[in-house]
Specification:
Low-confidence stretches: none
Strand order of the largest sheet: 5-4-1-2-7
Radius of gyration: 12 Å
Number of strands: 9
Shape: globular
Structural class: mainly beta
Helix content: under 10%
């Protein structure tokens, strides 16, 4: 299966879309670069190339993790599969 989303670190709670776009309700394959494993996720929103998708439910005040590091805080609840 082709890779649609890249996750850099196993601790990351967002992934980056690496295809032109993910359409709503698309079952997408995600590659975790840290250990070369994979996981699947179903999108809720359309998400364009280079944008982030929530890999888990995120609540207001949660830390967004990318590359295993804090990149921002959640200001509004985001559901798994939504555009971040």
């Amino acid at each position: 299966m082709a890779t649609d989303i890249i996750i850099h670190d196993k601790k990351d709670n967002v992934g980056v879309v690496v295809i032109e776009k993910i359409t709503p309700k698309k079952e997408s394959n995600s590659r975790i670069m840290e250990d070369d494993s994979s996981t699947n996720i179903q999108s809720i929103d359309e998400i364009p190339l280079g944008h982030k998708i929530a890999m888990v439910d995120l609540n207001e005040g949660d830390t967004i993790l990318k590359y295993g590091h804090d990149i921002d805080k959640v200001v509004k609840t985001i559901k798994k599969g939504e555009h971040v």
